Write a sequence for this structure.
């Protein structure tokens, strides 16, 4: 699939390793002289704390047609130490992996402020709509779940550079589902659970397995397990059966009160 990224010049990609030698190590096969000639070309800055992950991501994006240099660092502090060797930044791809927004609450606003007008795009193992909204509220111009393909990732970066905002279609559908669910959340659940947790609760009451819940709610099975543990903690239950019993009691009590 052709990329919609503006033609910024197809040049070799480079990763900058701040904890090693201060020289630039080429990912492609271009000569060092060519990299100096292209110093005015803009680059994609990848921030990923995992060395292997950021190097593989950089190489993969280049191999799939990303038309710009790539500078990959473990953190914003690492980039600050070496930014003199880096071309101007066109966009920042911030890979948060499985971290939740509570762990990165200040990171995204800081990046958005420091690199403005270059957009910050978040890459995440999650596609939870609540997290996506908080990331966008923090100043990010895109949210890419790792469940999408590389070509989609490149298109999303290109869209952000062009001034747009990328969110996965699946999350838009999920948002609509959440809105519809919120209108029908049963009174016993109001105020006790988040909307997503309430959806999981309803599924538990119906005896659905984790895989089915994950499929119907467009979640990872591991995310469903996290929600279930949270629900058990809130209900002071030790297992799913006890959760179902306590929920039935809550609904029964609400019915009598009505």
């Amino acid at each position: 699939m052709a990329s919609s990224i503006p033609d910024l010049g197809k040049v070799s990609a480079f990763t900058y390793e701040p904890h090693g030698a201060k020289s630039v190590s080429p990912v492609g096969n271009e000569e060092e002289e060519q990299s100096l000639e292209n110093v005015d070309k803009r680059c994609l800055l990848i921030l990923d704390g995992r060395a292997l992950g950021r190097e593989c991501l950089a190489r993969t994006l280049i191999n799939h047609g990303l038309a710009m240099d790539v500078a990959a660092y473990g953190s914003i502090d690492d980039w600050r130490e070496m930014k003199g060797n880096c071309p101007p930044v066109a966009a920042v791809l911030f890979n948060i992996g499985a971290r939740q927004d509570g762990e990165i609450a200040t990171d995204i606003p800081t990046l958005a402020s420091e690199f403005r007008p270059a957009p910050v795009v978040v890459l995440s193992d999650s596609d939870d709509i609540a997290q996506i909204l908080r990331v966008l509220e923090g100043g990010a111009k895109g949210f890419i779940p790792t469940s999408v393909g590389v070509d989609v990732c490149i298109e999303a970066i290109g869209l952000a550079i062009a001034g747009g905002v990328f969110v996965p279609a699946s999350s838009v559908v999920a948002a609509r589902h959440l809105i519809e669910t919120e209108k029908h959340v049963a009174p016993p659940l109001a105020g006790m659970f988040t909307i997503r947790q309430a959806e999981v609760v309803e599924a538990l009451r119906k005896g659905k397995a984790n895989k089915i819940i994950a499929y119907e709610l467009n979640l990872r099975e591991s995310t469903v397990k996290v929600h279930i543990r949270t629900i058990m903690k809130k209900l002071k239950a030790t297992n799913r059966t006890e959760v179902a019993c306590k929920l039935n009691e809550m609904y029964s009590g609400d019915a009598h009160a009505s």
The CA atoms of residues 9 and 67 lie 6 Å apart. Residues 1-40 have pLDDT under 50 and may be disordered.
